[in-house]
């Protein structure tokens, strides 16, 4: 309601995220450029997650709790497999939402 | 899959008290970005070359290559990966720094205020008229560029620069990100082992990555690192001290008109500064090197190679930063005849030279021949200052 009124400036404003200088477009469709940007961010984040899993495995191994062959040869039991199946299906459902909804 | 070299991971870069604190995932993110850069250079760039060769055109210059390649899918995909990798690297660094910027500032304050040696000084000049060609550009997609301050006595952008540089260059600059400085030292030691400067000036030192190696080969010289950007100097002086280098002076000055006296310096150098200097300021920077040097002194500026002598395709690939990475002076610099500019500002023509400086590998366990092809190497333009009374023959 009072948003049009002057307010006290934050003495320590956060660093702005906008960049001076035009962001180039490399494809003929601006949405495709954006899709690339999002995909590359996902590529990065998946790699970060993979590194975290690797860290956990290495720590478990160092502490002698699990050795790497146990991870490689892991077979889920029936109920674990069912839970994992659910996770996979929900994951694909979210990824391909745009094709199915 | 062809075997690619592994970029230097975060845990192998030099750690010091000014370096940001990171979480597991932030480190993994930076490491991934370093890998993406290596992937873009080693796996994707060759696909652009192949696509160009298949077109069967014989361009007379890089502009014709661009016309042929601008719409090519291989070029576009490579560009999208490069550009986004740069943007992600900046965001990652910004997020890391953003949540600890006050504590980074305190660390810098503490290190800078500590009683150190006489030669270790931080001299800031708030009244300095910072040139627009520096303050007005977000160089290589760094929000706010070198000079922006988001807090009083801010070091944010410098901390971001230091934390993420290894990722940008795929680790090729070594644990201290100082390959250009080490390349210069190696060149000096090999070519002019008897040259021992007593006063050294680094023009446009940034946070001093490439200044520090000079201290190792010239332990008693007075070293003055000059830059217009206060955040870089604050961070740089603190970083030097954190690394145990307590005898370099960091001064906030314009490299094109320093307050240092004429003919008072034996070695003037810069690393990767010319391409971030405007066309108008560039001759003035070279002129300043000339003014500062004593007779018998040396100036040398390390850069990416000029386009002259490169084939049009390589020129086109190297021009990418000028077009897409916020480097507005890049293209013109690489088309400039720096030798001629040096002569124009007063260096004697026969004392001006161009050379190549190669950094020795930081991985001493590796055989040299294996590393040579990908060792960080720079073009350099330089000149010796004529000794008064000497002639071209003398």
Largest sheet of chain B: 8 strands, mixed
Which segments of chain B are poorly predicted (pLDDT under 50) over 5 or more consecutive residues?
Answer: 364-374
Helix/strand-derived category of chain B reads: alpha/beta
Helical element count of chain B? Answer: 15
Helicity level of chain A: 55-70%
What's the CATH H-level homologous superfamily of chain B? Vaccinia Virus protein VP39
Number of self-contained structural domains of chain A: 1
In total, the number of domains of chain B comes to 1
Uncertain stretches of 5 or more adjacent residues of chain A: none
Largest interface: A-B, 27 and 37 residues
In short:
The complex is a heterodimer of chains A (101) and B (394). Chain A is mainly alpha-helical and 101 residues long.
Please describe the structure with a list of short key phrases separated by commas or semicolons:
heterodimer, A: 101 residues, mainly alpha, 4 helices, B: 394 residues, alpha/beta, Rossmann fold, 8-stranded mixed beta sheet, 43% helix
Give an overview of the whole structure:
- Chain A has 4 helices and no strands.
- Chain A has one domain (30-100).
- Chain A has 101 residues and is mainly α.
- Chain B has helices at residues 24-55, 62-69, 73-98, 101-113, 132-135, 156-168, 179-191, 212-217, 230-242, 282-292, 312-318, 320-324, 330-335, 338-344, 368-372, and strands at residues 121-123, 199-203, 222-227, 248-252, 265-271, 293-303, 352-358, 377-384.
- Chain B has a single domain, classed as 3-Layer(aba) Sandwich (Rossmann fold), CATH 3.40.50.
- Chain B is globular and about 60 Å long.
- The longest helix of chain B has 32 residues, at 24-55.
- In chain B, α3 packs antiparallel against α6 (156-168) and α4 crosses α9.
- At the A-B interface, α1 of A face α1 and α3 of B.
